[in-house]
């Protein structure tokens, strides 16, 4: 077994030695590791030493075999060295001789070489310069164009230079410098063109009001020609032109004696715009901004809004950015800047509402802005589009309407509101001519119409107050036929009897009647002015005028009349005249209806036509005046009654009625004489006393009767005598005499005397001392003292009983006085019984 292992070990060592001999040195590591990993390291080292010794012996044998050949080779080499030295010396001599003899030839050849090199360089230089000179010329041309601010041609030159010329000489250093400068030149062109655009934008921002003013003036003249043409044709069709049309024509002709020009049609405007685009090439180098139109004569044709503006900076910049591939950037910048300008334009000044010029400048700026944008829309492809314009217009419309609502609310002058309305209509018509929807503006004008009506009502309130305050409330005197016809022309009044009367004569009404009537017509004209050019139908105009007129009648005029009627210093004569005046104004309402029908051409029978409420207004005023007459009469009666100074303890009556009552009756007689001027009927004037006079007279008598009764029964009068009662009876008889005299015609029988029946029956009962009849017949319809209330009789009886007790202390010892006192007590007891039975 040990022998077998020894053989295997020897075989392994032999294999390792063969690998060491045949393997590269760099890869011997694994082989040696296998040796050291084994346990036979010593034996391997012995094998290795034996192998080395074998190789050394083989090397030694080989060297001994080749030594003689090596010695022979060295000997031959030494012989060759000597011969080589001789050959070297011969070559050196030959070379020296050759160099000496060819030195001149070499010099000539060098000179020829230099000439040939120079010739070749010159030819190459000419060829290269031929290629480079066009590049340099183009670059010089580019610089010249940049210097002269011809940016679009410079951009074209730059393109030719970059794509045609520079590629041919691209390997030269100066060309590389040019190539490096091309982006800078493009950026410089962009910056300069953008600077021109900014100048243009700033210029049109400053002058947009001038552009808008021109556009609105052009539209105004166009509209005036349309109005004149419409009225002219109506004249041809109907020679009897209506007053309102004649007034419009006169106003237009007087305000604009030299109307020329007119508004271009949209087709002409577009044609002009296209022509302008064709003639305005990007090569045009005109300055941007607004052309000078300040020195134009008044009667020259108004230039078109586009003719005032040089749009070449926009076109140049658009072309340049399009060529540079930055069109979208340019479009975004332009739209962004114009949006900012739009917001500035739409911001109204804080004091815009103070004058019409403030509104006009505001509208001019807006119109100018959108005229420019409309022109840009139609002369460029895609710089702005319809969606962008519509978006701006929606924003402008909302902000404009909001600003107008705010600022117009501060306006209290109807003339300014009317001028503002005309300006808004012109503003809307101008923009409508450029294709912008303006329906919301006309809707807003209907809102302003309500405000206009309110300002008109305030103005006419002052007018009516002045008329009513300055009126003398006396019938208008007429001295001749001319004045009479003039008055009848101002107010629709017809009276056959008055016409038959000789001059001088008087109209039954005072001056405020024709003045108020004419002012109502002026108010209607003022309302009609606002409805012009609002594109309303005749029915809508008629309805608007009637509603405003109704407000004028029912609110403004009614309040003014009520204030006049209720003021403290108004007299009965004035109140009587007010009743007469309101009666005639009430009759004139039908003529106002006809007047409105004539100017609106809408028949009053049309469905939904609003009726005038003037009849109700004047009736209410008349009723208020009547009530004020009644109230004033009663107050005058109260003032006279305050002068009453009865001696309630008098033993004997006077010989006649009291002085205060005589004066009161005299006042009533003179007052009711004035009432003969009152109309007896609402529909026909009459010089006789009418219902108002009768009512006033009856009211005065009833109030006088009631006041006298209260005077007799008031608590301060604690005692009274029969003599005082008889004096009071004289005063009542004076009142009854006044009632019987018929101060106001029209009463039937003793109707007016019935106002004093309560006093009469009470005084008869006490003076005649007819208690037995009163007590016996009380409660029967045929009772003589039917109007005497037991409570009233008891109060008065108690006053007389107290007097009898106080002044006749010793009279009780006389039989007659004792019987009278017992009778008074008995009557008082029975009266209390009647009162108690009545309450139960």
TrEMBL record:
Top-level taxon of origin: Eukaryota
Region spans: Disordered: 253-288
Gene Ontology terms describing biological process: exocytosis; Golgi to plasma membrane transport; intracellular protein transport; vesicle tethering involved in exocytosis
Domain Exocyst complex component EXOC6/Sec15 N-terminal: 47-216
Exocyst complex subunit EXOC6/Sec15 C-terminal domain mapped to chain residues: 440-799
Iron keyword on record: no
InterPro entries the UniProt entry points to: EXOC6/Sec15 (IPR007225), EXOC6/Sec15_C (IPR046361), EXOC6/Sec15_C_dom1 (IPR042045), EXOC6_Sec15_N (IPR048359), EXOC6PINT-1/Sec15/Tip20_C_dom2 (IPR042044)
Iron-sulfur listed as a keyword: no
Keywords assigned: Coiled coil, Exocytosis, Transport
Positions in coiled-coil regions: 45-104
Annotated Polar residues bias: 278-287
GO (cellular component) term, any one: plasma membrane
Family membership: Belongs to the SEC15 family.
Function, in words: Component of the exocyst complex involved in the docking of exocytic vesicles with fusion sites on the plasma membrane.
Protein name: Exocyst complex component
Species: Gallus gallus (Chicken)
Gene: EXOC6B
